[in-house]
Amino acid sequence: MTKFISVVSGKGGTGKTTVAINLALALNEFGHNVILLDSDLRSADIGLMLGVSPKLNNIHDVIDGKKNIEEVVYHHPSGLNFIPASISVQTVNASPELNSVIESLDGSAEMVIMDAPAGFHKEVFSLLDSSDEVIIVTNPELPAVTDAIRTIALVEQSGKKIAGIVINRYNGDEAEMSVENISAMLGKEILEVIPEDIYIRKSVKLKYPVSYAYPLAPSSVSFKRLAAKVLGKY
């Protein structure tokens, strides 16, 4: 039985997609069969970040009945299997049909990591219906943490399990909230703190996950630790 894990955030710009990509790859590197699904139909980035041409088939072709789900699974040189979404603005209303496509992935992998839309749109509610667990990504600034509080309430309202919080782009300077304060405000387990890392920007340029392009980078080590915690091995 496949476990479906959504990676969500209360606002854009937290680095949610980067977390989803590198978590999926790290889980794969631990020997688990994982598919990464771009469920952000409003702002699809996974295909672009992993080097898939926007002209190639994607999840929207499955939603439209033009392709089978197996035909839009791409294999990245890093070993990651992923399903991109379209960058066309004409496809943002396709979300009502997404849940049935997600259901078709049941049994195709041990885990499906789903990069959710940022914010509090109806698409997020819909995606939560297909999720077994949710990971919430935030940044160490008060507006992002406040949005994370709203996101926690949203997830709890849906009755889904919150696996924990990922604090992304952490510098540890005095301008940021401390990990302790964030934990106290959110009242949830901090799964991992991902540091701000120049190697992430370099990896995006290469169209490779940072944990593949720069496996010893500080963020790569954190992503591998995050995957170990998701698997209960840390």
Q: What are the main properties of this structure?
A:
single chain; about 230 residues; alpha/beta; Rossmann fold; about 40% helix
Helical percentage: 25-40%
CA distance, first residue to last residue: 23 Å
Biggest sheet record: 8 strands, mixed
CA-based shape: globular
What does this structure look like?
The chain has 234 residues and is of the alpha/beta class. It has one domain (3-221): P-loop containing nucleotide triphosphate hydrolases (Rossmann fold, 3-Layer(aba) Sandwich). The chain is built from ten helices and eight strands. The protein has helices spanning 16-29, 46-49, 59-63, 98-103, 122-129, 142-158, 179-186, 198-206, 210-213, 218-230; strands at 3-8, 34-38, 74-75, 81-83, 111-115, 133-138, 161-170, 190-195. The protein has an eight-stranded mixed β-sheet with strand order 3-4-2-5-1-6-7-8, with helices on both faces. Helix 6 links the parallel strand 6 (133-138) and strand 7 (161-170). Helix 1 (16-29) packs across helix 10 (218-230). The two termini are 23 Å apart. 46% of the residues are buried. The mean pLDDT is 93.
